[in-house]
Amino acid sequence: xxxxxxxxxxxxxxxxxxxxxxxxxxxxxxxxxxxxxxxxxxxxxxxxxxxxxxxxxxxxxxxxxxxxxxxxxxxxxxxxxxxxxxxxxxxxxxxxxxxxxxxxxxxxxxxxxxxxxxxxxxxxxxxxxxxxxxxxxxxxxxxxxxxxxxxxxxxxxxxxxxxxxxxxxxxxxxxxxxxxxxxxxxxxxxxxxxxxxxxxxxxxxxxxxxxxxxxxxxxxxxxxxx
Length: 226
Description:
By secondary structure, the protein is α+β, with helices and mostly antiparallel strands. The protein has helices at residues 86-89, 102-111, 117-121, 132-142, 155-175; strands at residues 9-15, 18-23, 27-32, 38-42, 52-57, 62-66, 73-78, 209-213, 216-220.
């Protein structure tokens, strides 16, 4: 847009599903990927195609933001104090950040006692970057039904929740942008999409259940998590 015309890209930052781009003259472009957003590099002077909502011509390359489901967001801030916009500075810690502590998880869980575990895991106010398959994986690793109200979790389970959020996030970061098949075949991820999928846990081999939970497709094992 005109607000960025002639400015130089200085730096970029990522936080969960959000990104922030710093431009000369105190301009900050915020981007939220939503459920289906994607940012890719294209040749210079790229002409926007279907579902491509932003093209930044950076000279040598173009940055293209596409989102076919249109749940993503864009925003431009003009700030003169040299600091990122306030909304960026106030974001919660990411799962692999040292500030993402057991206490952080415990306090967030206690704020929403009636919320199903799977639904709470997708709340970016507490768990930035956790997506749908990751939430299913965390519930499965914990052997807890995704519909379980978080008030039912005891202290040990809350500590285990913190551990599994970090573990699954670490694995997701390892394979993101490469090959999701690199995830262990002993994980739910490689079985949750298959029709007639079978629980991969040793000694289980129960048929997986797929159902809707508050608008999100949810996969779980009725035996391991029952």
